[in-house]
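hiii, so i know i said id send this last week but things got crazy w the move. better late than never?? heres the sequnce for the chain we talked about at the cafe, plus the structure i predicted for it. fair warning i was half asleep when i ran it
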Amino acid sequence: MPALFANGKYGQVEPNRLSGITYGVIEAQAPAYQDKAAQTPIAELENGMFLCVLSDVSGTSPMGRIAVLPGVAEATSEPFMVFSERKQYDEREEYSDFVDRAKDKVDGLLYPRLISMKPDTDVFTTNTIYAPVTTTFTVGQKLYIGNDGYLTTTPGKNLQLQFEVSKVYTLPDGQPAVKLLVQHYVEP
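okay and structure toks below
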């Protein structure tokens, strides 16, 4: 399901300043599931979504950990942002055409590149938001991680981070977006 704010396309991320990339706090070998029991693989992931990494209690992951949707994980689980490599070989495709699909993988599992977020340091631009494209965002407005991994205007189960709109933006392909400052979660 494409992010609503992405206007029929898929979510994009511009990594303005992500300390997880700079310092190598990246998780890239945890298969993505919809549940803690590792029974239902996630069908598709967009850049800018969030997942939480947990110990694999089912024993199916060779590395002993899995990535799950924030609504399934404990409220105190660290959220990681999906920022997978774009592998498109057609020059007519744009970043907004990229989505990672399990059906395109040999084993039917997604192994997203997950970037750790550092509050009060990290800044990124995205349109991976579960809000209608007609939504007007304002500087200072807060966004939260929803249970489905998309950013939303209301808090989900995961209460570790919130994101402050520092600039209302337009991506290079003309899609609306917001520049966000990562912050510790504060009760609204």
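btw The first strand starts at residue 13 and ends at 17. thought thatd interest u
miss u guys!!
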